[in-house]
Amino acid sequence: MRAGLASLFLLTALSGPAVADEPVSLLARMGEAMENTSYRGRFVYQHGAESSTLEIAHATIDGIEYERLTHLDGQLAELIRHGDQVICVHPDKTITRFARPGEANPLALQARLARQIPEQYRVKRAGDDRVAGRSAWQLDVVPADNWRFGYRLWLDQSSSLLLKSETLDHNGMALERLEYVSLEISPVLAVSDFAAPANAAEQSLPMVEQAVVSERPVRLEPRWLPAGFREAGADTRLEQGYPVTARSYSDGLASFTLFAEPLAERTMRDSVGRRGPTLLVTRVVELGGDRFAVSLVGEVPPATAEQVFAGLQLSLAGGSDD
């Protein structure tokens, strides 16, 4: 009788849920899995009131990471990654090449979470769950203040891949959600599965000549940033034929970009828009006798944008501050 009970106890223990590592270690394992695991699946991506279904295939072949992300509803569009090169296949069958993965990818959050978590967040276990028929560990990434959003994650207990993620406001409401509905681990994939469409016309990205932007470039200097935010990049680009100054800031998870563009004869008003966690705030300002549109775009709460604008210093090269 005792032997029977012992056997039953052992069987129960062996068939029970896997024991999770420390939360930060789980995120490190997720990072390794997303690079080295071959998988194929479908997931639903909800961004505010809009949602779409996508298919993904991922593999590392001969040391090169490949990924194909295909929209399954609406017009056909794809992102194809070969190492550090990303090819965007547009609905009209044209393609655009990029030198590095873009933040527009719905899986960009997964890549950021796989890096070292900034000190302005803490990671904690939130129990076990099931997603897409698979056992998952649930983690909460909790911000230290209300200047940034939080995140909730579900990691596959078998492969450590991300099965589901949510971006949360300070009330715990999900502003963005990614959730797998099916996932196949270790499918047979070849380089040909990640080929771009044959004979596709290639678009070129507009380059900004120095002469175009050297006359009166706008300088953007935020005198207030949330703790942990640092400049992540700065450039000048062409948007619809107009030179646009851009400066990006990030704490390692959250990010936003400031833009300044001349209005010339165009009409534009102050505005605020939001799509899921992505916020767009635009202010029209006068500087050196000219009108400019200054915008903030990023995944931060409205109060953060307002505070950034309150301390934003604008000037023209060789001119005085506004």
| Sheet of most strands | 12 strands, mixed
- Please tell me what the overall shape is: globular
Number of domains: 2
Indicate the CATH architecture of the largest domain: Clam
Question: What can you see in these coordinates?
Answer:
With 322 residues, the chain is mostly beta strands. It folds into two domains: 18-201, Clam (outer membrane lipoprotein receptor (LolB), chain A); 210-316, MucB/RseB, C-terminal domain (Phosphorylase Kinase, domain 1), CATH 3.30.200.100. The chain has helices at residues 2-15, 23-36, 108-114, 210-213, 302-310; strands at 39-47, 50-61, 64-71, 78-82, 85-89, 95-98, 121-131, 134-143, 150-156, 162-168, 174-185, 202-203, 218-222, 230-239, 242-250, 255-262, 271-275, 278-287, 290-298, 312-316. Helix 2 crosses helix 3. The chain is globular.
List its traits.
Phosphorylase Kinase, domain 1, outer membrane lipoprotein receptor (LolB), chain A, 48% strand, 2 domains, 5 helices, mainly beta, disordered N terminus, six-stranded antiparallel beta sheet, 322 residues
Please describe the topology of this protein.
Layout: H1 2-15, H2 23-36, E1 39-47, E2 50-61, E3 64-71, E4 78-82, E5 85-89, E6 95-98, H3 108-114, E7 121-131, E8 134-143, E9 150-156, E10 162-168, E11 174-185, E12 202-203, H4 210-213, E13 218-222, E14 230-239, E15 242-250, E16 255-262, E17 271-275, E18 278-287, E19 290-298, H5 302-310, E20 312-316
Parallel strand pairs: 6-12
Antiparallel strand pairs: 1-2, 1-11, 2-3, 3-4, 4-5, 5-6, 7-8, 8-9, 9-10, 10-11, 13-20, 14-15, 15-16, 16-19, 17-18, 18-19
Helix pairs in contact: 2-3
